[in-house]
Amino acid sequence: MFRFLLLTLGVVAVLAAADFQRWLNQVSDLTPPAAVEADAIVALTGGSGLRIAAAVRLLEAGSGKRLLVSGVHESVDVEALVHGAGGTQALYDCCIDFGRSAASTEGNAIETAEWIKDNGYSSLILVTSDYHMPRSLIWFDELVEGVDVIAYPVETRIRPKEWWRSWVSIKGLVLEWAKYRVTGLLRTIE
Fold first, then answer.
1. Which of 128, 132, 173, 131 is nearest to 150 (CA)?
2. Residues 6+ positions from 160 with CB-CB distance below 8 Å
């Protein structure tokens, strides 16, 4: 019985490692589209502000009419966020909304769906970290209905291509892979 248990655990570990490597290859190959245009842009918070900075650049380039920064914690100083992400104050005043109700990726999708419905948009550019994009798309495909979602993955300090070089990357990627697997499994069961 003990040998069977060890063999089973060994097989599960090998399958998990293979799936993790497959997922790493998938997220490592994600690149932002060269030219992109939609009604709106949504940036999910996190990624050391690099996600928001990329979304602001897209807005400045005219890739979308308005930007929602989803999942801004109540304690975050918007002025500091603005300073770190770039852009002009006029751009923030006219064209950027800060969503404060989301506390998870599912919450980001719910917050975005409400914002999209309120504004009547039919397409959006989703800006988040490359490693976070697959799980984000699961939620956005399910909860942001009737909207064309264009993925715009951003490289951040967690680097899938060089995951073994930094403890931050190892920890972040293993955790994100596990969340992706659980989210996918739960979506399949429901």
1. 128
2. 24, 27, 28, 130, 131, 169, 173
Those residues whose C-beta lies under 8 Å from the C-beta of residue 93, and which sit 6 or more positions away, are none
44 forms beta bridges with 70
The pLDDT tens digits for 144-174 are 999 999 999 999 888 888 888 888 889 999 9
Average pLDDT, the chain: 90
Q: How far is CA 74 from the centre of its chain?
A: 20
Please give the model's pTM, rounded to 2 decimal places: 0.90
How far CA 126 is from CA of 3, 76, 99, in Å, comes to 48, 21, 14
- CATH number attached to the domain at 36-156: 3.40.50.620
Cα four-point dihedral sign 52, 140, 64, 72: negative
Residue ranges covered by each domain of the chain: 36-156
Q: What's the length of the chain?
A: 190
